[in-house]
Specification:
The structure is a single chain. With about 100 residues, this protein is mostly helical. The protein is built from 6 helices and no strands. The two termini are about 10 Å apart.
Length: about 100
């Protein structure tokens, strides 16, 4: 599922962080962490250049920035596209389930 997310996101011009240190420090979400052990899940975020962890005052301020709004809009478009891919290609859901297990 994440490969499809990145593929569609790159087509929309989204850039993805590759630095493992930054991803480990600012990526992920504890509130979705438990859910992601049971269900496949993509979690939204703001551009990593803000360098704030989720659920902090800095994140709240950064999320209101115009650049963050564009990031959220692109994520919404990407998720819609991803769902369309899954609904129109029956083999994708099977692949996603197999990867998850």
């Amino acid at each position: 599922m994440i490969k499809l997310y990145e593929k569609n996101g790159q087509t929309l011009g989204m850039e993805f962080e590759r630095d493992e240190k930054i991803i480990k420090k600012f990526g992920g979400s504890t509130d979705m962490g438990n859910v992601s052990h049971v269900l496949t899940h993509n979690s939204s975020g703001v551009s990593y250049w803000f360098r704030f962890s989720s659920h902090t005052k800095g994140f709240t301020v950064a999320a209101g920035d115009e650049t963050a709004q564009l990031t959220h809009f692109l994520q919404l478009r990407q998720w819609q596209w991803q769902q369309s891919n899954i609904y129109t290609d029956p083999t994708l859901l099977t692949k996603i389930r197999e990867e998850f297990e």
